[in-house]
UniProtKB/TrEMBL annotation:
CHCR repeats: 569-713
Gene: VPS41
Protein's recorded name: Vacuolar protein sorting-associated protein 41 homolog
UniProt key word Phosphoprotein: no
Localization per Swiss-Prot or TrEMBL: Cytoplasm, Cytosol; Early endosome membrane; Endosome membrane; Late endosome membrane
Main location: cytoplasm
Region (Disordered): 1-31
Length: 855
C-alpha cells in the first residue's frame, strides 16, 4: 500500500505496507488508517508523545516535556495542562470522563476534576510509572486511585475529606503498568502480573513473567481488560489471556474467593507493544527488531498492527499491516503504545512523533477495495445489499463503472446484460448506452436487453437497431420483429425497408415471413395471408382463425389443402357457418382427390350432413380409397344401391358387390359369388350365419358336397346352426375329406358341450325355482299387523269395530290390502277362493292367500 511520509498528505490516505510476499495478495485488509492531525501535528513538531488515554468523548495526550493535552476526536486541542518539565508516564480517566489522574517521571502525581476545583497533588522521591483511578471515581463513595513506583499505593479519601494511603504491594521492583476495571486492579512489576480484588481486599493471582532475560524497561508489559473479568497480558513475545472466576464455597478454605484461569497462552514472532480486544479476536501492536549486524538503524522495520485469533495454545494471524509512522527508524519497543475506544472499534497507535488511528473498515471501504481490485460485480452486489448503509458510493455509478469495464475488455454481451439491471428506468442513460454501443459497432449485443414493456425508449432507437440488423443479419432481424411489440417502432418505415431489401432478393423466405408478420401488426391480413400461403407457412391457419379471414380464403381452399390437407379440412369443417359445404365442394371440383378427403371427413363427423354427395362419394371411394368403401356402404343410408352395385361390378369389387347384393335381398347370388369367386368357405359360412336362412344353408351344403375342403369347413362350423347328420348323410362314400377325424371329434365335442350347457341351465333353473318358492313360503308365513289405524279398502271404514265385544270378520290378503268380509264380493270362478279386488284390477300380486280373523 502507499506510504505517507509527508505531513501534508490527506489523513484518509492509507499508509500501511504489506510484506514483499503479500504485495500482490487478493486478501482484503481488515482495518483502515488515518493520522490524527490538526492540533496533534503542531504538538508533535516541538514535543514527543509519551502516553495517551482514550475516552468515548475525548483524548488525553501526555508528552515528554511534561504537558497534558485534551483533544477532541479529530485531534483539536481543547485544554492544556502544564504538569511537569519531564516525561508524563501515564494518564488515567474515570468512566464519566470528569476526573483525570496523571503521573510523571519526576515523581509528581496529580488527580483533579476537569470541571471542578477538587484535586490531589503529591511529589514522590522516585519516578511514578503508573496511575489508575477507580472507574467510578466521580461518585463520592469511590474516591480511590492507585499509583505505581517502587510500590503500589492505594489512595482513598475518608469521611474527613482526607486521603488515606495503603500499600498494596512492594519489594518486587518498579511498578510499570496499572489497569483498573470494576473491582479488580491489575499491575505489572519486574517479576510478573498481579491482580487485586478491591472488594475483598485480597490479591488473587500472580502471573509470572515468562522471559526474564529481557529488560522490563525496554520491553514493558502491556495490560488490557477485555471485560470485567478477562485480562489480556502481553510481555515480550508472550501473550496470556486470564479469566477471573469465582471459587466454589467447598474449595475456599483459606484461599481467596476468586481465582484466575489462563484460558490462552501462546508466543508471537515479534515483541508486543500493545494489545486491544476486537470481539473474540485480538489487535496487537508489534515492534519488529532486525539484526543490527546486518542492517543499519535507518532501515529498521516499521511497527506492525496484526489481528490474531487466539486459541488455547496458539494463534492464527487474520491480517497484518506494517505501519509507516513518522521517525519509525528512531523508535524502540517502549516508544509505542496501543490504546482503544470501547464505545467504537477505534485503535490508536501512539509513537513519539506520530499518532495513527485504525478503524474497522465499513461497507464503503469494502466497496473501495473491490473497485480497486477491479472486482466490479462483487462491488455492485455489495452495494445493492447494503444500499441503505453506504454513504460514499452510489449503486448506479458502480454499475456504470462495471459496464465500462466490461466494454473496455470487449465483453459486450455481458455489458449489455448488465445495462438491464443497472440503468433501470433512466431513459437518458439507456439512450446514451445505445449510442455508445452503436459507436463501437455492437448494437446487436444490446438489442435483446432494451426496455420493451411499459417503459420504452424513443421509436428512433428501436428503428436504428432494426436497420442495423437488416443490413447484415436477416435471422436476427426476424427474431426482433417476433419479440418486439409493434408499438415500439414505426411499422410502415420498417415495412418499406424490408420491401426495398426484397427487391434485391425476392425469394428470401426469412424476409418474406418477417414482412408477413409486419403486415399482421399493421392489420393488413390479406397481404400477410398471401405471403404465408406462398411460403406454405405453418402459421397460416392460426392467422386465419385469429383474424377471421375466412372470406379471404374462399378462392384459396386448394392452396390450403395442398399445404396441409388435415389442418385445412378440420378448419373448413369447424367453420361451416363461414364457408359453406357447397362452396368447398365447388372449389374442389377440379381436384377430386382433395374433394374425397373433405367429403370423407365430413361423413366421419356426420353420416347425414353431406347425404346429397353420397352418390358422388361412391366413385371417389372406388377411385382413391377402396379400403373405406365397404364401411361407407355399410354406414350410409342415402347412397343409391343400384349405382353402387354398378360401380362395384364394373371394378370387380367382389366383397362390396356381395354386401350390396345381400342388402338388396339377393342373398343366393351373394352366396354364390362368395363360393365361386372368393372360394372362401369361412366367409360363406359367416354370411349364412348372418342371414340365418335355411335355404341358404341348403345351397351352401349342395355347393360344398363335392368339394372336400368346403366339407371340412362346414363340419367345423355348422354344428350349432344345422344338424351335422344332414351333411354327413350326403357325403359320398369313399370321398377323402381332409381332417375328417378332427372335424367329427369337434362335432361330438360341441354336442357334448351343448348337453352340458343344457344340464347346467336346468340345474340353475331348478335351484332358482326352489329358492323363490322358499322365499314365497316364508313371506306368506309372516304375520300381518291389524290395528285401529288400518281401513277397509272397499268401504274405507276402520277395519276394527269400535265395540270389540261384538263378533266381526276381516279378510287380509298377502298384498296387505284389508277388507270387511261383508264388503268383499262373492267368490269368483273357483268356489271358496277370493281375490283382492285392487290387485286383480291392476293384474299384479299373488292375491290368492286369504287370512281370516274371526272373533
Amino acid at each position: 500500500m502507499a506510504e505517507i511520509e509527508k505531513q501534508e498528505k490527506k489523513p484518509s490516505e492509507e499508509f500501511t505496507d504489506d510484506s514483499s510476499e503479500e504485495e500482490d495478495s487478493e486478501e482484503e485488509p481488515k482495518l483502515k488508517y488515518e493520522r490524527l492531525a490538526n492540533g496533534v501535528t503542531e504538538i508533535l513538531q516541538n514535543d514527543a508523545a509519551s502516553c495517551m488515554t482514550v475516552h468515548d468523548k475525548f483524548l488525553a495526550l501526555g508528552t515528554h516535556f511534561g504537558k497534558v493535552f485534551l483533544l477532541d476526536i479529530q485531534g483539536n486541542v481543547t485544554q492544556k495542562f502544564e504538569i511537569s518539565s519531564v516525561k508524563i508516564n501515564q494518564i488515567s480517566l474515570d468512566e464519566s470522563g470528569e476526573h483525570v489522574g496523571i503521573c510523571s517521571e519526576d515523581g509528581k502525581v496529580q488527580v483533579f476534576g476537569l470541571y471542578t476545583r477538587e484535586g490531589f497533588h503529591d511529589n514522590f522521591d522516585c519516578p511514578i510509572k503508573a496511575v489508575a483511578l477507580h472507574p467510578q471515581f466521580s461518585r463520592s463513595n469511590y474516591k480511590q486511585f492507585v499509583t505505581g513506583g517502587n510500590k503500589l499505593l492505594l489512595y482513598e479519601r475518608n469521611w474527613l475529606n482526607r486521603w488515606k494511603t495503603v500499600v498494596l504491594h512492594e519489594g518486587e521492583g518498579t511498578i510499570t503498568n496499572v489497569q483498573w476495571r470494576a473491582n479488580l486492579i491489575a499491575w505489572a512489576n519486574n517479576l510478573g502480573v498481579k491482580i487485586y480484588d478491591i472488594s475483598t481486599k485480597q490479591r488473587i493471582t500472580n502471573v509470572l513473567r515468562d522471559n526474564s532475560s529481557q529488560r522490563p524497561d525496554m520491553y514493558p508489559c502491556s495490560l488490557c481488560w477485555k471485560d470485567d473479568t478477562t485480562l489480556i497480558v502481553g510481555w515480550g513475545t508472550s501473550v496470556k489471556i486470564c479469566v477471573v472466576k469465582e471459587r466454589k464455597p467447598t474449595e475456599m478454605r483459606d484461599l481467596p474467593s476468586r481465582y484466575v484461569e489462563i484460558v490462552s497462552a501462546f508466543e508471537t514472532e515479534f515483541f508486543i507493544c500493545g494489545l486491544a480486544p476486537l470481539v473474540d479476536q485480538l489487535v496487537t501492536l508489534f515492534f519488529v527488531k532486525e539484526n543490527s549486524d546486518q542492517m543499519d538503524e535507518e532501515f529498521r522495520s516499521r511497527p506492525r498492527l496484526d489481528i490474531i485469533q487466539p486459541f488455547p495454545e496458539s494463534c492464527e494471524e487474520i491480517s497484518s499491516d506494517a505501519l509507516t509512522v513518522r521517525s519509525y527508524h528512531d523508535n524502540e519497543c517502549r516508544d509505542y503504545r496501543l490504546e482503544h475506544s470501547e464505545g467504537e472499534s477505534l485503535f490508536y497507535i501512539i509513537s513519539p512523533k506520530d499518532i495513527v488511528v485504525a478503524k474497522e473498515r465499513d461497507q464503503d471501504d469494502h466497496i473501495d477495495w473491490l473497485l480497486e481490485k477491479k472486482k466490479y460485480e462483487e462491488a455492485l452486489m455489495a452495494a445493492e445489499i447494503s444500499f441503505k448503509n453506504i454513504k460514499r458510493h452510489d449503486v448506479q455509478k458502480i454499475g456504470m463503472a462495471y459496464i465500462n469495464h466490461l466494454v473496455e475488455n470487449g465483453d459486450y454481451d455481458a455489458a449489455a446484460r448488465k445495462c438491464q439491471k443497472v440503468l433501470g428506468k433512466n431513459m437518458e442513460l439507456w439512450e446514451n448506452e445505445v449510442y455508445r454501443f452503436k459507436t463501437i459497432g455492437q448494437l446487436k449485443a444490446i438489442s435483446q436487453y432494451l426496455p420493451r414493456g411499459d417503459l420504452r425508449l424513443r421509436p428512433a432507437i428501436y428503428e436504428m437497431i432494426l436497420h442495423e440488423f437488416l443490413k447484415s443479419d436477416y435471422e436476427g432481424f426476424a427474431t426482433l420483429i417476433r419479440e418486439w411489440p409493434g408499438e415500439l417502432y414505426n411499422n410502415m418505415a420498417i415495412v418499406q425497408a424490408v420491401t426495398d431489401h426484397l427487391k434485391k432478393d425476392p425469394t428470401n423466405s426469412t424476409l418474406l415471413t418477417t414482412l408477413a408478420e409486419l403486415y399482421t401488426y399493421d392489420q393488413r391480413y390479406d397481404r400477410a395471408l398471401e405471403i404465408y400461403l406462398r411460403l406454405r407457412h405453418k402459421d397460416v391457419y392460426q392467422l386465419i382463425h385469429k383474424h377471421n379471414l375466412f372470406s379471404s380464403i374462399e378462392d384459396k381452399i386448394v392452396l390450403l389443402m395442398d399445404f396441409d390437407k388435415e389442418k385445412a379440412v378440420d378448419m373448413l369443417l369447424d367453420n361451416e357457418d363461414k364457408i359453406s359445404m357447397d362452396r368447398v365442394v365447388e372449389e374442389l371440383h377440379g381436384r377430386p382427390e382433395l374433394l374425397h378427403v373433405y367429403l370423407h371427413k365430413l361423413f366421419k363427423r356426420d353420416h347425414h350432413k353431406g347425404q346429397k354427395y353420397h352418390e358422388k362419394q361412391i366413385g371417389l371411394y372406388a377411385e382413391y380409397d377402396r379400403p373405406n368403401l365397404l364401411p361407407f356402404l355399410r354406414d350410409s343410408t342415402h347412397c343409391p344401391l343400384e349405382k353402387a352395385l354398378e360401380i362395384c361390378q364394373q371394378r370387380n369389387f367382389v366383397e362390396e358387390t356381395v354386401f350390396l347384393l345381400s342388402r338388396m335381398g339377393n342373398c343366393r347370388r351373394a352366396l354364390q359369388m362368395i363360393m365361386e369367386e372368393l372360394e372362401d368357405v369361412d366367409k360363406a359360412i359367416e354370411f349364412a350365419k348372418e342371414q340365418d336362412d335355411a335355404e341358404l344353408w341348403e345351397d351352401l351344403i349342395s355347393y360344398s358336397i363335392d368339394k372336400p375342403p368346403f366339407i371340412t369347413g362346414l363340419l367345423n362350423n355348422i354344428g350349432t346352426h344345422v344338424d351335422p347328420i344332414l351333411l354327413i348323410y350326403r357325403i359320398k362314400e369313399g370321398m377323402e375329406i381332409p381332417n375328417l377325424r378332427d372335424s367329427l371329434v369337434k362335432i361330438l365335442h360341441d354336442y357334448n358341450l351343448q348337453i352340458l350347457l343344457r344340464e347346467g341351465c336346468k340345474k340353475i333353473l331348478v335351484a332358482d325355482s326352489l329358492s323363490l318358492l322358499q322365499k314365497m313360503h316364508r313371506t306368506q308365513m309372516r304375520g300381518v299387523r291389524v290395528d285401529e289405524g288400518n281401513i277397509c279398502e272397499s268401504c274405507h271404514g276402520t277395519i276394527l269395530p269400535s265395540d270389540m265385544a261384538q263378533p266381526f270378520s276381516v279378510v287380509v290378503f298377502h298384498c296387505r290390502h284389508m277388507f270387511h268380509k261383508e264388503c268383499l264380493p262373492s267368490s269368483g270362478i273357483i268356489p271358496g277362493v277370493q281375490f283382492c279386488n285392487i290387485c286383480s284390477a291392476k293384474r299384479r300380486g299373488p292375491g290368492s292367500g286369504i287370512l281370516e280373523m274371526k272373533k
